[in-house]
Amino acid sequence: FASAACEAVRFAPSSINGQPWRLMPEGDTIHLFCETPAAVQTVNFHGIRFPMPGRMLRANQSIDCGIALAHIAAIAEAQGIQIEFADEGMTNPDEKLHYVLSAVVTQ
């Protein structure tokens, strides 16, 4: 399950094609982390570079992480696996990431 779910998320769409998520599989659990944007970040959109406030990126990243979680749920359903999303209280692997949620196999 974890391998197929990670592969599906790898191809998931995201705003401004950022794919801000990072997945950490651990047995039958997948932990989702998201990049923490700087106060202002330069964004490349269709070859045009422009500054974007971090608060705008955070809003987009919340949607992006929801898209990643939806892809994980779709793979679980396709494989007949029951999962639940839970706060596993993971610590951040580095200061550039923050923990979002974990997908835990319940069946």
Description:
This protein is α+β, with helices and mostly antiparallel strands and 107 residues long. The strands form 2 sheets. A 4-stranded antiparallel sheet has the order 1-2-6-5, covered by helices on one side. The protein has a two-stranded antiparallel sheet with strand order 3-4. The mean pLDDT is 87. It is 32% helix and 36% strand. It has helices spanning 2-10, 54-78, and strands spanning 21-26, 29-35, 40-45, 48-53, 83-86, 97-105.
Question: Which terms would index this structure?
Answer:
alpha+beta, 2 helices, two-stranded antiparallel ribbon, four-stranded antiparallel β-sheet, 107 residues
What class, by secondary structure content? alpha+beta
Count of individual beta strands: 6
Order of strands across the main sheet: 1-2-6-5
Mean pLDDT: 87
The low-confidence runs, each spanning 5 or more residues with pLDDT under 50, are none
Number of helices: 2
Largest sheet: 4 strands, antiparallel
Shape: globular
Give the end-to-end Cα distance, rounded to a whole number of Å: 12 Å
Order of helices and strands: HEEEEHEE
Radius of gyration: 15 Å
Portion in helices: 25-40%
What oligomeric state is this? Answer: single chain
Q: Beta-strand level of the residues, as a percent range?
A: 35-45%
